[in-house]
Amino acid sequence: MDPSCNLSVNGFYNLLTRELDELDQSFISHNLISIQFLSKVLSSLQSFYSQLTTLVQKLHLPVGEKWLDEYMDESSRLWEACHVLKSGVLGMENYHSSGTNITSSIDGFHPHLNAQVSRQVIRAIMGCQREIRGLEEDNKSLIETRVEALSLQFEGNKRNMVMTDQSSWFNSFNGFRGVLYAMRIVNSLLLMILFAGLVYCWPSSWQDAADQCEEAGSTFMASMARLQRRVASEMEQTGGQSSASDGIMLYEFRQAKIAMEELKVELESTVVDDQYELEIDIQDKVDRLRSCFGLLACGVESIIGQLDDFFDEIVEGRKKLLGMCTHQPR
């Protein structure tokens, strides 16, 4: 039987807690902001939205009341956030294309590389590295101009969440407002994780957020705090290993950057007089670079597919509730 058939308000809160705990366990298993983990995060966003839509249909909410506007506001926020995510992910496609061209340019000459070919490959790598810097600058601007308007900060959450379960606001519309608020703040955390991994990480946005979650005292908020602290710790360590503490945190993306730099260093160390061919063993580094870009390409394609499915689900959910509210009884 479909578990959504028996979904209740309390069941929705339990769903949030369970999904957050599963994400936490998934992250512990790999301790990486990887495609696999981010795909699970995106799946949770889809699940919460789908289950909320189902729950609203069971609550028998009054037609023409403000609850519909609040639902539409949150679905619009998700829609805009997913478009920003897709813009960031699509930007990685050019990066992957450039990286694939680098490995292809070596295949025709290896193992007999002359200095001229080595320099050509080095220039191609440097061009790709400039593309990376440009991509991250573009994504940073995307975050600053479009994401900040989505209200992903946690300011004010503690003040609102200390409201008791008996609060008239929290339980208004048969508990809908409390459920929507809970989903909104959970969505905010998951979107922050997705933006950090796929678009651009701005570390200041994570400051004190976990403290606020823990102090609020709610079960699902405590689950949020655990997940947030774990991901934030990994981002801090990842940033400490690079020249900057921000940027695109996706594991596969960063591994491709490292593999490309290692190949560049190896080629630079072997460049000699143009008249000689070079007998150098770079096959392992070329294979690693090819593998990294292959994993990145598959991951990007998978995430884009998930986002496209989510767009369809958002549209369908809005249609269902609008139809429910505009249906005229016979």
Summary tags:
10 helices, single chain, two-stranded antiparallel ribbon, transmembrane, 330 residues, mainly alpha
Would you spell out the secondary-structure blueprint of this structure?
Blueprint: H1 9-30, H2 35-58, H3 66-107, E1 112-114, H4 115-147, H5 157-161, H6 176-198, H7 209-216, H8 219-240, H9 251-268, E2 277-279, H10 283-326
Antiparallel strand pairs: 1-2
Protein name: Protein BYPASS-related
Keywords: Membrane, Transmembrane, Transmembrane helix
Transmembrane segments: 181-202
Folded structure, characterized:
This is Protein BYPASS-related. It comes from Populus tomentosa. The chain crosses the membrane at residues 181-202. Keywords: Membrane, Transmembrane, Transmembrane helix. It is built from ten helices and two strands, in the order H-H-H-E-H-H-H-H-H-H-E-H. Residues 1-5, 154-166 and 207-217 have low confidence and may be disordered. A two-stranded antiparallel ribbon has the order 1-2. It has one domain (3-326). The chain is elongated, with a radius of gyration of 24 Å. Helix content is 73%, strand content 2%. With 330 residues, it is an all-alpha fold.
